[in-house]
Structure formats: structure tokens, C-alpha cells
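Figure S7 source data.
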Amino acid sequence: MADTIAATAPSERTTVHVDLGARSYDILIGRGLIGDAGYQIASILPKARLAIIADETVAKLHLGSLSDSLSASGLGHTAYTLPSGESSKCFAEFERLCDEVLAGRFERGDAIVALGGGVAGDLAGFVASATRRGMAFVQVPTTLLAQVDSSVGGKTGINSRHGKNLIGAFYQPSLVLADTAVLDTLPPRDFRAGYAEVAKYGLLGDAEFFAWLETNWKGVFEGGPEREEAVARSCQAKADIVAADEFEAGKRALLNLGHTFGHALESAVAYETERLVHGEGVSIGMMLAHEFSARLGLVGEDTVLRVRAHLDDVGLPVRIQDIPGQLPGVDTFMDIIAQDKKVSRGALTFILTRGIGEAFVEKGVDPGVVTEFLREKLDQ
Ligand code: GLY
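C-alpha cells for the predicted glycine complex:
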């Protein structure tokens, strides 16, 4: 059944290689790639049966074409859906899906395929890491955020009542298929939120990429060739960082630019996505990281203005006050920040910057200075 590899002509695509020795893999990027999924997966896992774990909303749009492509390449598969939304990243769904995979008699040499955004990818990856002590795993990310961030680099997991992403594993996929055409059906707000992570790569380490985005962002949003280029450059930036520091002992923390403030804002609105989605929190968080860096004398106001102008141009929120509704006071924010994974023995770690493309990890930031800064920002 799984012995034939369909001779489907591969469509135009870009390949980014994630160099991790025995755990290396490719990220393929291009329009219509789901139609090539069977060919691509059969090329690396010719005998695997596939358990597809799909977001139920995405399944309605794209499971049919994925399934057709797998069948054309002789890959046996069964699909399991999960409710859309962050609440699926929980122990109950994890347990259910592990049991489904075992009940379906999938073996160690078989594979889990994640179809959806970050929730499906993180959950399915964790199922793959744990079931039968590790099954092969393929990511088919269908949001911009998942294509440029969560599907790459091997962070998998679920949420606990103690916080987001606190239960999980580093578990690399064998292949990532980023079909940029599926982003055409993404709600504009979600596309914009994902774009915050694209801009992040320029801001943290590549001033030339940020300048390119300032000129080309409309093409990225409209689905021109600029979109593939932006996804590929983002994936390449992440691949380089992950290859240098897979388990976040140092440099990988740069990917958290804007995330300490951003996570605190998401937590402060109790993860109500009507008020704030992750990428919007990252956008405001990146602004705060630049403003805080300016406060510490690390960058000039001109840099802050330039970053704000671009995020504002694309329609992302840039101020705490852009979040609708009431927010808690500074003490609550500092409590949330103190519980962040990036805290070590009371000292705060922040990603600060000396200029566009020049972010760095600063350990031991004085909580008193952060409190004063945030108090001012909340009062503005
Ligand atoms: N999303 C941050 C990381 O993968 O390290």
C-alpha cells in the first residue's frame, strides 16, 4: 500500500534546511504544497501510516486535498480532529489523541501529521513525542504564525492550570510543509498577528530584512511572491538560531523578543482572544521592548519611531491602550512577569536591543526599573 511514491511533479518551492545532525529536516515553502504532501512525505517515510491530527475548522478547508494527495501516493491515513482554540492544548485532548493513535494501531515507524495552526502543531507534536516513546512527525502549518514560528524548532506541548506551554518536550519534526496559498483563507486579523513574528526576525537580527519588509509588506499581505520570500527568510532566521541553540541555553532566547511583555498582556486579559491574540501581544511587547531599551539609553527615539511606524502601517496594535477594556494595575503585571519561564531566581531576563537587528539577551534586569517603566506605560 505504502510502497508507491506518486510521480507528482513538485510545484515551485523554497527549501530551508534545519541543521540538527541526525535530527535535521527540511521546511518546504510554496503555494499549493498540500497538493504535493503525499509525494513529499512518501519521499522520507515511504512505509508510514499517518495519523492526521487536524484543527476542525482547518479540516473543513484543507483536509480533503491533503487526504487526496496522501492517497495518490499510497499513504494510508486516518484523521482525528480537535476543537479550534487554545483550550484544546490540554491534558484531556492529549490523552484522547494518544489513545486514538494507539487504538488505531499506529506503530513506532508510523507518523503523526499536524494540520492547523500553533495549537494543532504543539499538541500533535507532543502526542508524537510521547506515544510509543516517539513517532515520526510532520507539520503542515496553516497560519502565518505557525509557518514562521511554532512549526519550526521542535517546541511541543500543552498548557497547565499553572500556565501556558508548561508541559511539553523539545521534539523535532521530520518535515515541515508550509503551503502559503492556504494563508489566502486566513482571517485578516490572524494574518496580521502572524506578521508580528515575521517583523520580529528583522528586529532581532536582520536590519536588512526589516528594511525589506518596510518596502514589501503589502506584497506579503496580498499573497505575491513576497509572501514566500518573507516566510522563507523568517524560517531561515529561526533555523539558524535553532541550529545554534536547540534547547534554549542561550541564543534561542532572542526569539522571545517582545514575548515577556506580550505574554503578560495576554495573561492580563485572561487570554480572551476577542481582546488580544498572541501576535498582537507580541507587537505591543516588541514596542515596549524598544521603548524600554530607549529608556535604558541603549537606542535612540528614532529607532522606536521607525519600529512603531511599521507595525502601525500594517495595522498591528502598538500601545497598551490599543487593547480594548480595562487592564489590571502594575503590581498584577509584575506578578505575572515574575512567574514567566524567563525568570531565574528573582532576576528578570529581557530581550533588549541596541538598534534594529541588534537584539540581545539581558539577564538580571532590576524589577524596580521595569515596574516604574510599566507604571508609566499603563498610565499613558
Ligand atoms: N517560539 C520561540 C521558540 O521556538 O523558541
